[in-house]
Write a structure and sequence with these properties.
Elements (H helix, E strand, L loop, with lengths): L3 E2 L2 E2 L1 H8 L3 E4 L1 E4 L9 E9 L2 E7 L7 E3 L19 E2 L5 E2 L3 E2 L3 E5 L2 E5 L2 E3 L2 H7 L8 E3 L1 H6 L3 E3 L4 E4 L2
Parallel strand pairs: 6-14, 7-13
Antiparallel strand pairs: 1-2, 3-16, 4-5, 5-6, 5-11, 7-14, 8-9, 10-13, 11-12, 15-16
């Protein structure tokens, strides 16, 4: 089945669906001009332990993570044998209060996974998005993007993943 986009057949959609990829809708969030003129964030919905959450798709993040404030929402517990993890972001120095969850159930589109998730504070990101009425529960990083063979179609605002 061909899907139309702006009156033309989306051949990428057709190609990927024939190869058992599933489309996952993305939402675009445009950052206010005072932050930058060109920044667009991609947002996806994903379930953790049966509860839907809002996640930033970040191809530059090496690991996926859940915000410390969302632990209760997803009924997550900290892994009892893992000390705090030393992690680094785009800013200077190590990030603080980074640890690992016990194994959780992840459902993203048609993909189901079990994995431990990195837990870290993301309030600094949510403060930036406050004026846009968006609150993130976490970040989908390159670990999940690679594991699911993700393909992003920016023109169609879709992400395709494969079980």
């Amino acid at each position: 089945m061909d899907h139309e986009q702006n009156g033309t057949v989306n051949t990428l959609d057709h190609f990927l669906i024939q190869r058992n990829y599933s489309p996952v809708p993305l939402n675009r969030i445009f950052l206010p001009e005072e932050h930058t003129e060109t920044s667009v964030l991609l947002i996806s919905q994903m379930e953790i332990n049966g509860v839907e959450g809002t996640f930033l798709v970040d191809t530059g993040a090496s690991v996926s993570m859940i915000g410390k404030n969302a632990m209760e929402k997803f009924n997550l517990k900290l892994h009892d044998r893992v000390p705090e993890i030393e992690a680094y972001g785009a800013g200077p120095g190590a990030l603080e209060n980074v640890t690992l969850s016990e194994t959780c159930q992840i459902r993203w589109g048609t993909v189901q996974l079990e994995k431990n998730m990195v837990i870290m504070p993301i309030e600094h990101i949510n403060r930036l998005l406050l004026s846009m009425d968006v609150e993130l529960d976490g970040i989908i990083g390159s670990d999940l993007l690679l594991e699911t063979g993700a393909v992003i179609d920016y023109g169609a605002n879709k992400l395709y993943i494969k079980p």
